[in-house]
Automatic annotation (TrEMBL):
Residue ranges constituting the Glycosyltransferase 2-like domain according to the UniProt record: 27-183
Pfam families named among the record's database cross-references: Glycos_transf_2
Protein name from the UniProt record: Glycosyltransferase family 2 protein
Taxonomic placement: Bacteria, Pseudomonadati, Pseudomonadota, Alphaproteobacteria, Caulobacterales
Transmembrane segments: 263-285, 297-317
Length: 349
């Protein structure tokens, strides 16, 4: 049975531009060992944001009690998790609580004072205008934005960004691990039904699951900021697991998008491209392994190996090009919000 929720009216395309006041924007802050910074973060949250959900993620410093005792802001609500779920689990718990309280736009902010909260309107605006379902910060839109970012992070984020493009299908976004994000509540409600990774892979896995919904994702240029905060992420510990998760998501995405939900020209290019490439490569390797050491390859042998490889590679590149152009472009939240309104009206009558 579907429970009726408080629903904000859908803004028609012909209406005046939406305002930040009354936009139903709520801030989600996962709190784990951020006691030294969290009150400064809360103090910087704009007055037009309707509420703040601070999620005590089983914090050993008891962040929830600390925030509650400080009484820093009347908009703050505390969610306490009995055990640590990771950043993803904390954010999802915050999403659920904000949606229960009637939020329309959910902005995730880290509690370490690393994010410039002056960019919150930049994240919220595309959603209020009906141009995106999910927005995220991108620190790679300008060289000047990268001056404060350590070189190892620049290289690591660039590599992770390309892997995320392949695995999620969002070829138009970059910097997938950026945690400064905003999502429309109806979309968040739907995506929370998925099995999303709750640890450090959360942001990238969320993108993958948004892709299964065909949600529109937009990057927002935001400069990097680094201060005294200490990251809990250890590069050496996540390379292997991240690579495996990316490969798994890529295989599931291709199977679901090109073989289950639909059948495109790209599907044929994938099939025959893989066959040709495998045949040409196998034939060439087999000939090299079994040939006489003094035997030269004839023109026929060369063509039998090279031509399938060339054709197969071209077909796979064409399939990749199709995939790039197949990025979602029509937001889904107006449809989802209309359905929610209709369900609420039906339950009210």
């Amino acid at each position: 049975m579907v429970q009726a929720r408080s629903v904000r009216p859908l803004v028609a395309p012909s209406s005046a531009f939406p305002t930040l006041e009354g936009s139903g924007t709520w801030i989600i802050i996962p709190c784990y060992r951020v006691r030294d910074h969290i009150l400064k973060v809360i103090a910087k949250i704009p007055s037009w944001c309707e509420g703040i959900i601070c999620v005590d993620d089983g914090c050993p410093d008891k962040s929830g009690d600390f925030i509650e005792a400080a009484k820093a802001d009347s908009r703050v609500a505390i969610v306490r998790l009995s055990k640590n779920r990771g950043v993803g689990g904390a954010v999802l718990a915050g999403y659920a609580e904000a949606i229960r309280r009637g939020a329309r736009v959910l902005v995730k902010v880290d509690g370490d004072d690393q994010m410039d909260l002056g960019y919150i309107p930049h994240l919220v605006a595309p959603i209020l205008l009906g141009e995106a379902d999910y927005t995220k910060g991108n620190r790679f839109t300008s060289i000047s934005h990268l001056k404060s970012m350590p070189s190892v992070r620049v290289f690591g984020n660039a590599a992770l960004s390309f892997a995320a493009k392949v695995s999620t299908g969002y070829w138009n976004v970059f910097d997938p691990t950026n945690g400064f994000t905003a999502i429309e509540s109806c979309v968040a409600d739907r995506v929370m039904e998925k099995q999303i990774s709750q640890r450090f892979f959360f942001e990238t896995d969320l993108l993958y699951h948004l892709g299964t919904l065909r949600a529109v994702v937009r990057d927002v240029p935001i400069p990097a900021r680094y201060g005294e905060e200490v990251s809990n992420l250890r590069i050496g510990a996540i390379v292997g697991p991240f690579a495996l998760k990316h490969f798994t998501n890529f295989c599931q995405r291709v199977m679901g998008q090109y073989f289950v939900r639909d059948f495109h020209a790209a599907t044929l290019e994938l099939i025959f491209g893989a066959i040709f490439l495998a045949f040409g490569g196998t034939y060439g390797i087999h000939w090299l392994a079994t040939r006489n050491p003094h035997q030269s390859a004839s023109a026929g042998v060369v063509m039998a190996a090279a031509l399938p490889v060339i054709v197969g590679t071209q077909m796979l590149l064409q399939a990749m090009n199709f995939d790039v152009l197949n990025t979602p472009s029509r937001p889904i939240h107006p449809y989802l919000r209309t359905i929610r309104q209709m369900e609420a009206s039906e339950h009210a009558s």
